[in-house]
Amino acid sequence: xxxxxxxxxxxxxxxxxxxxxxxxxxxxxxxxxxxxxxxxxxxxxxxxxxxxxxxxxxxxxxxxxxxxxxxxxxxxxxxxxxxxxxxxxxxxxxxxxxxxxxxxxxxxxxxxxxxxxxxxxxxxxxxxxxxxxxxxxxxxxxxxxxxxxxxxxxxxxxxxxxxx
Length: 164
Fold this sequence. Notes:
Layout: H1 2-15, H2 17-26, E1 27-30, E2 33-36, H3 44-50, E3 54-58, H4 66-70, H5 88-99, E4 102-104, E5 112-118, E6 121-129, E7 132-136, E8 142-145, E9 157-163
Antiparallel strand pairs: 1-2, 3-8, 4-9, 5-6, 5-9, 6-7, 7-8
């Protein structure tokens, strides 16, 4: 019986080693309670330059990016435009044809939000969660944001909202 349990734990660890290691490293057991501990990959000022109203929500992970997270595939890197930033029309076409999203405006509750410096330069995506959002910063951390239009600098501002 113990051997079966041991094998199942070992198989789980092999399958989810990255997440297990991350969890072990991020939990500190203090006096019988778990306290989440983390360190930002970049200096806080670099995140402040890109957005406001953010809280750490998950560790850095180079296997997925903002678009993959926003459309629900946090196990792959998804950016079909190569090294370039797509236009709003290209994003709308891609999200529609590949994932069944349609562009919406207020008063709809979006699922995916695009951000950019203009409609011809979309640089980032976030996933709506009620009136707030989550976003993955490239290979860096996952963050929770109070609001939808919380980006600035290279990430720009809210450009379009999409719903399935």
